[in-house]
Amino acid sequence: MKLEQIINQPVIETARSTLRPVRRSDSGLLQMYAGDQRVAQATSSIPHPLPPGAVDNFITRAAAEDRVEDVWVIDGSAHGESEVKGVISLKRLDREQSEIAYWVAPIYWNTGIATDAVPALLAENPLKNKTVFAAVFQDNPASARVLTNTGFEYIGDAESHSVARDANVATWTYIKRLG
Asked: Are 15 and 5 in contact (CB under 8 A)?
């Protein structure tokens, strides 16, 4: 069975990229970018160093029919750029809510990739959410700007465990109501 046959996620076109389900062929670029310490430390879930098999396991989880998180690759190939510029996801919560998360490859930092992808995913609203939450580490103000520029409202401080840092890290928490 091909991976593409079991994914039931929409492909979303943005002005600068295509948000599409993860493919096995993304493994090498995902390994390279997610294995970058700067990327890992900006997330709560990516370990550093990246252990063998971690990316393959990630791809398998992203393709599972019973997954709790829908994951899209931010693909720039239609615009003459890399097939993997980053990743964006929606983790299902209860009561028509999700948590959005994203990371961008360092080569594309400060180029507006996330600012393009986040509103496109929210506009498509593939999970038919009424509310979307987000949390960013307080030492990552660029990600916070993406959220506020997309209409998210700050709702408070918290903390989240970073696997790469092996520590709890202060976060800013946001909410956006859809429809």
From this structure: no
